[in-house]
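JOB MANIFEST
job_type = single_chain_structure
chain_count = 1
residues = 154
[input]
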Amino acid sequence: MQIWVDADACPAVIKDILYRVADRVPLQVTLVANQLLRVPPSRHIRSVQVPSGADVADQEIVRLLAPGDLVVTGDIPLASDVLKKGGYALNPRGEFYTNDNIAQMLTMRAFMDELRGSGVDTGGPAAFNQGDRQNFANSLDRHISKIQRESRGA
């Protein structure tokens, strides 16, 4: 398993958690972004810079992703593509996208886009907080433990 990070909008505290996990487990963590990213020196952490443009980073993640890999993203369409390719998708607030919830999330996203397009102020997501950080760390830890148990049993 490898972890891919949709890094352009990923909170710094989430990246820090991933950096620590990369060396502790060890596990390859790759950050993909439209801008140059500084990452800590580690043989388990790397960054990939892609050209600017809508969804270029998303397309690169999907292209490189292998079944069973984990993608950290808040982008619902990217999460949908990850699931279709056999990967796992986790948002920075610690919630997994699944085949059971992705269709509803895509529908809600389209509805909110339509509202915004008609001039309705829909607000934005709640501010990222310590609870979100903890939920992410816990979800990531449970997922890695599950994958490790499954690989030992295989």
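[summary]
The beta strands are 2-6, 28-33, 45-49, 70-72, 88-90, 96-97.
DSSP finds five helices and six strands in the chain.
exit_status = 0
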